[in-house]
């Protein structure tokens, strides 16, 4: 936990904050205080109002009349919040997607986050920019040079660059508020702990941090205080030291998590066989997946995990090697071939890649199986809506009804809709890339149960996840990709987070 810097009052005080959207009250009379030097976690289920609160604090949305936001000495009516006011008060947000440019250097990324250092004539003053970047690299302890391209950095270091860029104009004495929205969602475990250590150091320097995450272990590990939202209402603010994971779940869901033991069936026939497949950074991988199996793929970012899924789905051709599906040679030229063969892919960036934001939830769920809804030469609206409502219920999607447009849903609820679409197709082979990213604790276990249920019915599933605890929990076997190869396969008692971490990094131990 961070050392507190003593300060008179809270750094941030939100009072009587309400935000109404047509048909939804996203926040209802919220009061919240955050102190300097405090890591304050904000938790809540999908659609509970976390993003809405962040967007008001950063001036993207305005609150309803009556709410007041105070940041440091700046006091603003919530209805008058603007990005300029928020920036002026020192509010900086680092989103999960970081908003960085991979093909630009650290210095160039810093420059794009503020005014370029310019000579009088208007040209970029590279010497000044590089010097300033060097200072930032030192201050934020980033392992890079000003000229290093972001692409060459680990995901953790990229996150640090994004944070340093956000705070670059702040000087040595941190004021304002740093908001981190799911900062570790795509970080491997060892980089998560490095980032958390760094955040603790920023906080002990006096930085106020609002930390939004669905990862409960991190919240327990890093935060001083936890505020929980449920359906737009602040349940309360608590000392983290008084909470454990079950306590947090209670706060988020208003009840304990129902855990059912996942039913398994013995592996059946081989569904998919890969023979010496070369794709992306992978030089040669061979494996089989059988009916009833949930097989995990572990590897660091850039290890070829996602490329492998996309190759099986026909999105990326293999450079060499072959695939077999149910014993027959399988050469998908495009995704359509894979879908026809009974393969479903839930991509990592599912909302950007696979969602129709200005269409209703029901249509988003029904789209791949649209032929099912033809009745006497017409598409049956009623059946689509019925399927949509059933999908919403099964996946705990929170929205006014199945006709609500996807754009009006919270991020996590959009994710659930795309998952509902593919799982309701009853595929033969299910390919899932980070299936629970951004999804709340209640729906997370539900999703894994649905995956397990699909495999009990005879399907096979291949799952990529950077949360190794989760991978260990759901998978029967785990394939570890490292340096372009299938480094090893973990089975039985070796399917645990510690072993998966060891093998992806090859720390100690022999293979
Ligand atoms: N632009 C909008 N129009 C209408 N309703 C919206 C809009 N943005 C958010 N909402 C609604 O406000 C509520 C709160 O959404 P918000 O995005 O703040 O949730 P969240 O806690 O961030 O969820 P998640 O964990 O899924 O990201 C939800 O019911 C959502 O459907």
Automatic annotation (TrEMBL):
<dbReference type="Pfam" id="PF00005">
    <property type="entry name" value="ABC_tran"/>
</dbReference>
<dbReference type="InterPro" id="IPR027417">
    <property type="entry name" value="P-loop_NTPase"/>
</dbReference>
<keyword id="KW-0067">ATP-binding</keyword>
<dbReference type="InterPro" id="IPR003593">
    <property type="entry name" value="AAA+_ATPase"/>
</dbReference>
<keyword id="KW-0677">Repeat</keyword>
<feature type="domain" description="ABC transporter">
    <location>
        <begin position="12"/>
        <end position="256"/>
    </location>
</feature>
<dbReference type="GO" id="GO:0005524">
    <property type="term" value="F:ATP binding"/>
</dbReference>
<protein>
    <submittedName>
        <fullName>ATP-binding cassette domain-containing protein</fullName>
    </submittedName>
</protein>
<dbReference type="InterPro" id="IPR017871">
    <property type="entry name" value="ABC_transporter-like_CS"/>
</dbReference>
<keyword id="KW-0547">Nucleotide-binding</keyword>
<keyword id="KW-0813">Transport</keyword>
<dbReference type="GO" id="GO:0016887">
    <property type="term" value="F:ATP hydrolysis activity"/>
</dbReference>
<dbReference type="InterPro" id="IPR050107">
    <property type="entry name" value="ABC_carbohydrate_import_ATPase"/>
</dbReference>
<dbReference type="InterPro" id="IPR003439">
    <property type="entry name" value="ABC_transporter-like_ATP-bd"/>
</dbReference>
<feature type="domain" description="ABC transporter">
    <location>
        <begin position="257"/>
        <end position="508"/>
    </location>
</feature>
């Amino acid at each position: 936990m961070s050392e507190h810097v003593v300060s008179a009052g809270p750094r941030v005080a939100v009072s009587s904050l309400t935000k109404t959207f047509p048909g939804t009250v996203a926040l209802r009379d919220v009061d919240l205080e955050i102190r300097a030097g405090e890591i304050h976690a904000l938790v809540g289920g999908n659609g509970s109002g976390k993003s809405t609160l962040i967007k008001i604090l950063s001036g993207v949305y305005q609150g309803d009349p009556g709410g007041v936001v105070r940041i440091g000495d700046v006091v603003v009516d919530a209805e008058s919040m603007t990005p300029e006011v928020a920036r002026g008060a020192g509010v900086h947000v680092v989103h999960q997607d970081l908003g960085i440019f991979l093909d630009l250097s650290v210095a160039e990324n810093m420059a794009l986050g503020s005014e370029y250092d310019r000579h009088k004539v208007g040209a970029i003053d590279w010497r000044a920019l590089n010097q300033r970047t060097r200072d930032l690299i030192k201050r934020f302890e980033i392992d890079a040079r000003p000229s290093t391209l972001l692409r060459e950095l680990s995901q953790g270091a990229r996150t640090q660059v994004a944070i340093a860029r956000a705070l670059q104009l702040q000087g040595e004495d941190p004021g304002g508020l740093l908001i981190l929205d799911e900062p570790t969602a795509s970080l491997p475990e060892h980089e998560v702990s490095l980032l958390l250590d760094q955040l603790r150091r920023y906080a002990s320097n006096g930085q106020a941090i609002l930390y939004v995450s669905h990862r409960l272990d991190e919240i327990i590990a890093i935060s001083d205080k936890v505020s929980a939202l449920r359906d737009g209402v602040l349940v309360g603010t608590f000392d983290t030291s008084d909470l454990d994971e079950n306590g947090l779940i209670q706060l988020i869901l208003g009840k304990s998590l129902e855990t059912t033991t996942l039913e398994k069936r013995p592996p059946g026939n081989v569904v998919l066989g890969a023979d010496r497949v070369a794709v992306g950074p992978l030089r040669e991988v061979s494996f089989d997946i059988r009916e009833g199996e949930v097989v995990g793929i572990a590897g660091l970012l850039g290890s070829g995990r996602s490329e492998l899924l996309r190759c099986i789905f026909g999105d990326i051709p293999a450079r060499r090697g072959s695939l077999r599906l149910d014993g027959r040679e399988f050469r998908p030229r495009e995704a359509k071939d894979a879908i026809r063969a009974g393969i479903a892919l839930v991509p990592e960036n599912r909302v950007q890649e696979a969602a129709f934001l200005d269409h209703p939830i029901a249509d988003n769920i029904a789209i791949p199986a649209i032929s099912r809804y033809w009745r006497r030469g017409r598409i049956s609206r009623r059946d689509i809506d019925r399927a949509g409502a059933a999908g919403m219920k099964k996946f705990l999607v929170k929205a006014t009804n199945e006709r609500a447009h996807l754009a009006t849903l919270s991020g996590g609820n959009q994710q659930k809709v795309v998952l509902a679409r593919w799982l309701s197709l009853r595929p033969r082979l299910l390919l899932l890339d980070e299936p629970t990213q951004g999804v709340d604790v209640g729906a997370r276990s539900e999703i894994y149960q649905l995956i397990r249920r699909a495999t009990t019915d005879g399907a096979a599933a291949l799952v990529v996840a950077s949360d190794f605890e989760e991978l260990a929990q759901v998978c029967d076997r785990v394939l570890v990709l490292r340096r372009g190869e299938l480094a090893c396969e973990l089975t039985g008692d070796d399917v645990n987070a510690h072993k998966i971490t060891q093998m992806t990094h090859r720390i100690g131990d022999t293979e």
